[in-house]
Amino acid sequence: MSMNGWPIIKLLPHKTNFQFVKYAKGFAVLSAILTVAAIIGCFYPGLNLGIDFRGGASMEVAKPAGQVLELDKLRGAVSGLDLGDVQVQGIARRDTNLDDGSTAIVRFQVPENEDQTAVVQRVESAITQAVGDVGYSGVSVVGSKVSGELLSNGVMALVVAVVLMFLYIAFRFPWQFGIGAVAGLLHDVALTFGLIVALRMEFSLNLVAALLTVIGYSMNDTVVVFDRLRENLRKYKVMPLRDVIDLSINETLSRTIITGVTTVMVLIVLAVFGGEALRGFSITLAFGVVIGTFSSIYVGAPIILLWGVDRSGGGKSDATPVKLGMASRP
Amino acid sequence: MIQLSRWKIILVTASLVIGLLLAFPSVLTPAQREALPGWLPRNGLNLGLDLQGGSYLLLEVDVPEMREKRVSNLMEDVRVTLREDQINIAGMQREAGGVVVTVAEGAQYDAAFNALRTMSQQGVGPTGQPDRVAAKLGGGRIRFAFTDAALASMGATAVDQSIEVVRRRLDSSGTKEIAITRQGADRIVIQAPGQSDPAELERLVGRTAQLTFQMVDTSPTGLNDALAGRVPPDAELLTDDLGTPYLVKKRILVSGENLTRAGVGADQNNRPAIDFQFDSQGARRFGEATAQNLGKPFAIILDGKVISAPTIQSAITGGRGQITGNFTIASASELVNLLNGGALPAPLKVEERRVVTAELGADAVAAGALSTALGFVVIVVFMILAYGFLFGGVSVLGLILNGILIVAAMSLTQATLTLPGIAGLILTFAVAVDANVLIYERMRDEARQGRSVIASMDAGFNRAMGTIVDANLTTLVAALIMFMFGAGPVRGFAWTLTIGVFTSVFSSVLVAQVLLGYWLKVAKPKKLPIAE
C-alpha cells in the first residue's frame, strides 16, 4: 500500500528503553516541592474566587467596536458607590475576539441587605454618567447564600471524585495501584490549583468542571499504564518490579504521547479561538492534561514500588518494596 | 474479531442513518424545521441560555417572613375576637408560631379560652385538622398558636403556590417558553430564553402583590404620636409613593384573596384607574365595613405601600369598586395583571440572576463552532500524520460518525448544550481518537513480536478493549460527579461528556473494525503498514 504517507510514528523510536524509575526519586522531590508550593499558594496569596463562589456581581460593559472604554473612569465610577472590592478588567471583544480596549468586565460586591436589582441599576447609571452610553451583555449576580452553597458543592465534588476514583481503581486493580493513582490525582489537582493561583485566574464553576475533567483524564492515563503493568506483571513473573514498571511505561509511551499531543493541541485551539469565557477553562485543562500525563509516569507507577505488589497470587509478596524516600509522597 | 461480520456492518450503517436523521434538523432554520414532514424528527440542539441569550433567575421563597406575617395576622385576630367579647387583656406575648395572652380578670379566663377555642375551630388547615389551637397555660394565660403541622406545611404550600402565581403572571405577560422549576425545598428557578427583558421579568416576579383594605386610624393625636415613635399596638405606620405617612389599623378588612377580577378603567377625570370585583365573601365584608365606617377614610394598601386612602361616602354593597391613584396606563395594566394572577404567599428574593444577551450568545456559538471546526482539523491532520491515510483516515471517519451521533443524541434527549458543553464536545473528539490510538499501538506491538497481520490486528482490538473500557469509565465517573454536584452550565458539560464517551467508544471501535476488516479482505496485506 502506498497510501500510508510518512507517519509520525516512524519518527518515534520503535522501542524506547527509558529508565523512568531511576529518575523517579529526583522527580518525586521536585513534585513534592511543587505540590507543597501549590497548596501554600491556595491559602497565600490564595485563590481568586469569582462571584460564583464568593457572591457579588459581574457585568460585561462594551462600547461599539473601535471606541475606547476608559477603564480608569469606569473603575472610579463603580468604586465611588462603596460596593466593597471593585475589579475592572479589559477583555477581548466577543464578536471579533480582539482586545481593542472597548470591552471590560466589572466585578463588585452586593451589600447583604440591599436589593440585587437596585444595586445593579445604580451601577449601570453610574457607569453611563462616567463613560457615556455602553452596552451590557452578560450580567450575573449571585447572592451570598447561593455562592456559599456553590463553593461547598464544588469542594465536595472534587473530594467525591478523588474518593470514587480510588474505589474504582482499588476494585479493578490491586490496592497498591489505588494508592498510586490517588497520589497521582492529588498531585495533579494540587498543581492545577497552583496554576490557577499563579495566573490569578478567576476560580469559577467552569474551573471546577475543568478540574473534574483533569481528574478524569489523569485517571484515564493512569489506567492505561496500570493496565499494561498488570498484564506485564503476569507475563514476566521474575523480572524485578522496577523493570516491569519501566517496561510498561515504555510500551505505552507512544500512545501517551500521541493522545496527549492531540488533546493539548485541541485545547490550545480552544484557548485561542474559544473566546474569553472558555480561555481559563481550556488553559486549566491543557495544563492538567500535561501534568496528568507526567504523573501517570512519575507519581502513580513508581509509588507502587513503595509498597510492592503481590505477584504470586497466593498472598506472598515476592517483590521487595524499594525505598524511594518520604519525599515521593505528595 | 476482525472478521467482517454482517451485524457490525448493519450496526454501523444503521447508526449512521439514524444519526444523520436525528442530527440534521440542527442545521436547519426554525422555519425549515417546521416545514419537515411529520414523520421526521424535528428537534434541533437545545441551546443553553449562555448560547442563545436569556435570563436565569434563582428565587427563594421567604418562608420565615411569611410565617412572621401569618403570626402577626393571628395576633390581630386574637385581639379583635377578645375585644368583641369584651374581655380585657393584661398582655400579649408573641412567641414562635403564636401568641400567649394574659387575661386581666381571673373571672374571664374561661370565657376567653372558649372564645379562642371557637375561633380555632373556624380555621381548617390543609390536613383537615384545625391549623390553630388554644391551650390554657394557667395563671390567666392562654396560648393560641399554629399547630406544628400547620407551620411545617406553610413552607411547602408557599413554594407550590408561588410557582402557580409566577406561572400565571408570566403567561399573561405573553413571554414564551419560560421554564419555571422548583429547586430544593424553598427555591424556584426561572429560565427565560431569547430576547425577553430581564428587568420586566424581575418586576413581574419581584412583587408580592398583596392587596389589602384597612381602616385608617383617625384618633386625633394618633398620627403625631406614631411619628414620634409611639405606634399603638393595633396599628402600623405606612407611607404612600410620595412619602406621606398614614397610620393604618392592622386589621385587614378585605384582602386581594377576595378579588374575582380586576381590570383597567378610568376615574371621573378620565385618568387610568383599576376596577375590581369582590367575591361574595369579600363583598359582604366590604359592605359591612363600609356601612359601619361611613365618613371615615380607609386605606388601599399594596405590598406595604398605601395606594390611596379615600373616605367612605356610602356603604358599598355590590362588591364593585375602583382604585384610583397615580397610575399610568402601563402601570395600571401591570398591576391588574398582578392582581389577577394572585398574590404571592411570601416575598420572593432573587438569590442569583444571570443575564446573557442574544448577541453575546451568538458570539459564543460562533467561537464554539470555530474552535470545534479547527480542533477537528487539527486532529484529522495529526492522526493522518501519525498513522497514515489508511489507519489515520479510518479513525477520522470514526470521528465524523462520533460527531454525528453526539449531535443526534443531544437533539434526541433535548439535553441543553452550554458553552462548557461545546468544550466537552471538543475534548470528546480528542479523547475519542485515544481508543484508536490504543488499538493501533497494540497492533504495532503484536506485529513487531512477529505475528501475522490478521493475528496482530485481531489481538489489537481484543486486548485494547479492556483498557479502553477502563479508561473511559473513569471519565464517566467524573461526569457523574459533575452531574450530581454541578450547577447549570457544568451539568451541560457533564452531559456532553457522558454522551461523548458512549458514542466515541462505539464509533472508534466499530468503524475501525468494519473498515479495516474490509481492507483486510480486499487488500490481503502482507505487512501491517503502521508497524514498519
TrEMBL record, chain A:
Matching Pfam families: Sec_GG (PF07549), SecD_SecF_C (PF02355)
Membrane topology: Multi-pass membrane protein
Gene Ontology MF terms in the entry: protein-transporting ATPase activity
Electron transport keyword on record: no
Main location: membrane
InterPro entries: SecD/SecF_arch_bac (IPR022813), SecD/SecF_bac (IPR022645), SecD/SecF_CS (IPR022646), SecD_SecF_C (IPR048634), SecD_SecF_C_bact (IPR055344), SecF_bac (IPR005665)
Domain Protein export membrane protein SecD/SecF C-terminal: 125-308
GO cellular component, one term: plasma membrane
Record keywords: Cell membrane, Membrane, Protein transport, Translocation, Transmembrane, Transmembrane helix, Transport
Matching NCBIfam families: 2A0604s01, transloc_SecF
Subunit field text: Forms a complex with SecD. Part of the essential Sec protein translocation apparatus which comprises SecA, SecYEG and auxiliary proteins SecDF-YajC and YidC.
Family according to the record: Belongs to the SecD/SecF family. SecF subfamily.
PANTHER family: PROTEIN TRANSLOCASE SUBUNIT SECF, PROTEIN-EXPORT MEMBRANE PROTEIN SEC
Protein's job: Part of the Sec protein translocase complex. Interacts with the SecYEG preprotein conducting channel. SecDF uses the proton motive force (PMF) to complete protein translocation after the ATP-dependent function of SecA.
Entry protein name: Protein-export membrane protein SecF
Lineage: Bacteria, Pseudomonadati, Pseudomonadota, Alphaproteobacteria, Caulobacterales
Gene designation: secF
TrEMBL record, chain B:
Domain Protein export membrane protein SecD/SecF C-terminal: 351-520
Source domain of life: Bacteria
Domain Protein translocase subunit SecDF P1: from-to ranges: 159-217
Subcellular location: Cell membrane
Pfam families referenced in this protein's UniProt entry, alphabetically: Sec_GG, SecD_1st, SecD_SecF_C, SecDF_P1_head
Spans through the membrane: 364-387, 394-413, 419-440, 461-487, 493-520
Keywords: Cell membrane, Membrane, Protein transport, Translocation, Transmembrane, Transmembrane helix, Transport
A cellular-component GO term for this protein: plasma membrane
Membrane topology: Multi-pass membrane protein
UniProt GO BP: intracellular protein transmembrane transport; protein targeting; protein transport by the Sec complex
GO MF, any single term: protein-transporting ATPase activity
SecDF P1 head subdomain domain ranges (all copies): 239-346
Keyword Protein transport: yes
Family per similarity comment: Belongs to the SecD/SecF family. SecD subfamily.
Subunit and interaction comment: Forms a complex with SecF. Part of the essential Sec protein translocation apparatus which comprises SecA, SecYEG and auxiliary proteins SecDF-YajC and YidC.
Protein name: Protein translocase subunit SecD
Organism: Brevundimonas naejangsanensis
The gene coding this protein: secD
